[in-house]
């Protein structure tokens, strides 16, 4: 978090938002650290109309619009090649959101130790997929463009080129470009190096 803390604090100050760092004290030692985002958001939800969660590996840039969704859903997420991504999401204060966060936390069968995947993302995907269609339509929105608030840096690699050739639309929807709100370093090695490089280029 120390690598991007100044970036996030500066953005919040510029926009007049509160900023909260969940911090090491909020990590539940009984689960992989990524799971602790759930109680961190849940504990603050009663005090805000909306909470924007973004993992520590994200860098904020532009101003995001507030008129992208005509109705007011309770949960706004993005999708990438693997489906819903739990590293970045908006959640609105409501009884449904409280239920969703509690239900997400209780998906204990998805907890994984000793793996590159902690299970929190799979648990969120499972829970959303399990919602009755009418409930999902009423409470969950998937951004039509991933890059609206969850862009990934694109760089030449075998995986990137493969995805560009066979999944050009999905790649384009999620690739970071100047002016995007946020760049998310999901799945990249040497995140500190990437953060330093990106911030220096800005």
From TrEMBL:
Pfam families recorded: Glyco_transf_34 (PF05637)
One GO CC term on file: Golgi membrane
Alphabetized InterPro entries for the sequence: Glyco_trans_34, Nucleotide-diphossugar_trans
GO molecular-function terms, A-Z: glycosyltransferase activity
Localization per record: Golgi apparatus membrane
Keyword Transmembrane: yes
Keywords, sorted A to Z: Glycosyltransferase, Golgi apparatus, Signal-anchor, Transferase, Transmembrane
Top-level division of the source organism's lineage: Eukaryota
Topology of the protein relative to the lipid bilayer: Single-pass type II membrane protein
GO BP, one annotated term: protein N-linked glycosylation
Family indicated by similarity: Belongs to the glycosyltransferase 34 family.
Protein name: Uncharacterized protein
Species assigned in the record: Ananas comosus var. bracteatus (red pineapple)
Organism phylogeny: Eukaryota, Viridiplantae, Streptophyta, Embryophyta, Tracheophyta
């Amino acid at each position: 978090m120390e690598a991007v803390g100044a970036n996030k604090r500066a953005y919040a100050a510029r926009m007049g938002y509160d900023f909260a760092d969940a911090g090491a004290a909020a990590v539940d030692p009984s689960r992989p650290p990524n799971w602790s985002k759930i109680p961190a958001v849940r504990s603050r939800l009663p005090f805000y109309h909306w909470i924007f969660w973004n993992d520590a590996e994200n860098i904020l840039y532009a101003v995001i619009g507030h008129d992208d969704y005509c109705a007011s859903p309770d949960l706004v997420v993005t999708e990438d090649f693997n489906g819903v991504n739990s590293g970045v999401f908006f959640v609105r204060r409501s009884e449904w959101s409280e239920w969703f966060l509690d239900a997400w936390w209780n998906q204990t069968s998805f907890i994984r130790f000793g793996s590159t995947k902690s299970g929190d993302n799979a648990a969120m995907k499972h829970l959303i997929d399990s919602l009755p269609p009418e409930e999902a339509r009423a409470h969950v929105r998937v951004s039509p463009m991933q890059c609206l608030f969850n862009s990934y840096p694109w760089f030449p690699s075998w995986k990137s080129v493969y995805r560009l050739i066979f999944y050009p639309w999905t790649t384009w929807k999620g690739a970071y470009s100047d002016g995007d709100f946020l760049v998310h370093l999901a799945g990249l090695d040497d995140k500190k190096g990437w953060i330093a490089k990106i911030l220096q280029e800005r």
